[in-house]
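Figure-free illustration: sequence to structure, shown twice.
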Amino acid sequence: MFYSKKEAVIEHLREVSLQGLPFYDVYYRYTEELDPKTQLARVQGEMVYSGIRVGDRVLVEKIAQTVMRIEKL
């Protein structure tokens, strides 16, 4: 699938800095799958909402298997 938006839950979160820019390693699990596996996305700070936390229910937007945005539900 080229484009998708799916509901997920944040499992783990790690803030990292790459060349002075904020990034997040976001570990999430889709809520719709029967046997969900934890996924990992490294995203820039502006690709996530302010105050992102473990346990949040989110909407993960992907284009060509690359996470482009994570929005809080």
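We now fold a second protein in the same way, so the two outputs can be compared directly.
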Amino acid sequence: MCIGRAPNDLRSVYILDWGLCRQYVNSTTGKPHRPRVRAGFRGTPRYASANALNDIDQGRVDDMWSWFFGIIELTVGVLPWDSDQNAPNEM
């Protein structure tokens, strides 16, 4: 995660993680790709959106959920499900 540095960019937040990315827009048509019927899980379960955990194709909103979970953990120190002992087994 990056935050803008220039005076006109201070309120901008940039999410950077190219390891698990794919093109959102078709370069030929300029339109978003159709969602996959089933998308296998990728990522870190503790920060994953409901879509990711349910093998539903992820989009930009899922990136925002992951960012939100990270901000909660940085601010509060824990995530609400950190005490759930069954969480790793329920994946």
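Summary for the second example: Helices lie at 50-53, 60-76, 87-90.
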